[in-house]
Write a structure and sequence with these properties.
Layout: H1 11-14, H2 18-26, E1 29-30, E2 39-40, E3 54-58, H3 86-98, E4 103-107, H4 117-124, H5 126-130, E5 135-140, H6 145-155, E6 159-163, H7 169-176, H8 181-194, E7 197-204, H9 213-222, E8 226-231, H10 250-260, E9 263-265, E10 274-279, E11 285-289, E12 302-305, E13 310-312, E14 320-322, H11 324-329, H12 335-345, H13 369-372
The structure holds S-adenosylmethionine and iron/sulfur cluster.
Length: about 375
């Protein structure tokens, strides 16, 4: 069994010097026989003693939908040359895995619209085989799952999160602008047939899907799927109606759920902003992601990588580290890249700064959710 050890105190400042380097090397641990993850290095620990073992990776900023709370109708996307290639994304993810990341979630934009994305899944799946990575998963709008569900399973994916806010075709077209519900439903069916465990993510929107809470719960129960509700977050300037108007507190939602089901509180935590309950009648797990009303930051175990190689240490803060430059500076040696990652983790803030309580969008992020992948 591997035992983790802290890096020497001065490793951050003088990592490049020979003495510290050789001392750091003594702490490397071999992991099985993967050619690209040769060593398990000292883990990533931030200044608040949180171990960072979860990386969310946005592989594209593009999407085939235009959800009103996420994108404007006329989005300007990044020039393709700014995106990391799939090989670069692989190298970056593999470096994180070698530094103790155990869970990778692939997101976007819509991850499954990126050309040749299956080659990335197939390649990164090798870390599951060695045991260096414990879970490879993705968040998707489901539109491409009919095509890709089997290939995802073959690559080692076992669970997917599919975003779906309504079961009403007209409302679905309204909220996603470009999406079509039957296509997504076929994607969900394909995922279930392929053997993937599916969790639905629904953004809770006041006056929009409040009345669907029970029907959606039932629909998921019939398919043995869990369901998580997400409070709408103040992201970007979308040119929509003020999203404060759409904010629906999940406290209210939880109370309504209790009117219909026997709700058992679960103590399990994912290191993220989700809290879970189990419904005795259906056996389902229902999650609540409440970044605005609960402080979950003390257990935060994650960082987010964008498709251009920016590492965001906190979803609710602007600070980020450019990893593309060190990645491209030297295509063979990873020391510079690893040091850039450690420096970034050393800047991970204690918490985010969203605040709706004063009824103005304090803490509002200027970047879109599709940039960091949620
Ligand atoms: N396209 C994929 C999808 O929709 O699942 C992955 C990317 S999407 C940005 C990831 C998640 O962020 C989705 O579940 C979406 O509903 C959620 N999301 C987007 N904008 C949001 C916002 N302003 N507030 C809360 N959740 C948001
Ligand atoms: Fe696309 Fe997902 Fe954003 Fe909707 S939430 S626009 S599906 S990235």
């Amino acid at each position: 069994m591997l035992t983790w050890q802290r890096a020497p105190q001065n490793a951050k400042k003088t990592y490049g010097s020979h003495d510290v380097l050789s001392s750091a090397r003594k702490q490397l641990h071999f992991v099985k026989s993967d050619p690209t993850v040769k060593f398990m290095k000292t883990p990533l620990i931030d200044p608040f003693q949180r171990q960072i073992d979860y990386l969310r990776v946005s592989v594209t900023d593009r999407c085939d939908f235009r959800c009103v709370y996420c994108m404007s109708e006329n989005m300007t996307f990044l020039p393709k040359k700014e995106l990391l290639t799939l090989e670069e994304l692989d190298r970056l993810c593999s470096t994180f895995v070698s530094m103790g990341v155990k869970k990778l979630r692939i997101t976007g934009g819509e991850p499954l619209v990126r050309r040749d994305i299956m080659t990335f899944f197939q390649s990164i799946g090798r870390h599951l085989e060695t045991g260096a990575l414990q879970e490879l998963t993705l968040t998707t709008n489901g539109s491409q799952l009919e095509r890709f569900a089997d290939q995802l399973y073959a690559a080692g994916v076992r669970r997917v999160n599919i975003s779906l806010d309504t079961l009403d075709e007209a409302k679905f077209a309204e909220i996603t602008r470009w999406g079509r519900l039957p296509q997504v439903k076929r994607g969900i069916d394909a995922a279930l047939r392929a053997g993937l465990r599916v969790k639905l993510n629904a953004v809770a929107l006041k006056g929009f899907n409040e009345d669907e809470m029970i029907p959606m719960t039932q629909w998921c129960a019939e398919r043995d799927m869990d369901l998580t509700w997400i409070e709408v977050m103040p992201m970007g300037d979308l040119g929509n109606e003020d999203r404060l108007d759409q904010y629906w507190s999940l406290k209210d939602l939880r109370a309504r759920l209790r009117e219909h089901y026997t709700v058992i509180d679960l103590t399990e935590r994912s290191g993220g902003p989700a809290r879970y309950v189990r419904l005795e009648e259906t056996g389902q797990k229902i999650g609540f992601i409440t970044p605005l009303t609960h402080n979950f930051c003390e257990s935060c175990n994650r960082v987010r990588l964008t498709c251009t190689g920016e590492l965001y240490m906190c979803l609710g803060q602007e600070d980020m580290a450019d990893l593309r430059t060190p990645l491209r500076a030297n295509s063979n040696a990873d020391l510079q890249l690893e040091q850039a990652i450690r420096d970034a983790i050393d800047r991970k803030p204690k918490g985010h700064d969203f605040d709706y309580s004063r009824q103005r969008p304090d803490g509002q992020m200027s970047r879109h959710m599709s940039h960091t992948g949620g």
